[in-house]
Write a structure and sequence with these properties.
Elements lengths: L1 H17 L3 H30 L5 H21 L3 H22 L8 H13 L3
Helix pairs in contact: 1-2, 1-5, 2-3, 2-5, 3-4, 4-5
């Protein structure tokens, strides 16, 4: 299921790029493609970390740290307000998962993360 979500997010980004018209739209589409690729990878990595949390709980924390770092980079590279908001929402989802993990939950609810990733897909659709 994660692979389908990743593929759908990437496909949305590609459609946004090919359907873009004008410089502003092209810039938005480029931001979306880069962001969608990074987000898809992050969501997959987080899902894998949650799946193996009982075997290696540190992997989950490391995955969250990597996503936080990636989100900081994404915030610095996009100037699209809608995309920035979606990335910020994803950051809030990651914070929610991190809090659950810090409170001992080895199977945190990833819905806030996947929901924010889906919102990025919506923002990237022309």
């Amino acid at each position: 299921m994660r692979r389908r979500r990743t593929a759908a997010l990437a496909a949305t980004a590609v459609l946004a790029l090919t359907g873009a018209v004008g410089c502003g739209a092209l810039d938005k589409a480029m931001d979306c493609v880069q962001t969608a690729e990074a987000i898809a990878t992050s969501v997959d990595n987080l899902g894998q970390a949650v799946s193996s949390a009982s075997d290696d709980p540190t992997r989950l924390t490391e995955s969250l740290d990597a996503i936080d770092k990636e989100l900081d980079n994404l915030r610095d590279t996009t100037d699209n307000a809608d995309l920035t908001k979606a990335v910020d929402d994803l950051g809030k989802g990651v914070t929610s998962v991190r809090t659950a993990v810090e409170n001992g939950d080895t199977t945190p609810d990833l819905a806030p993360v996947t929901s924010a990733a889906a919102e990025i897909g919506k923002v990237c659709t022309p």
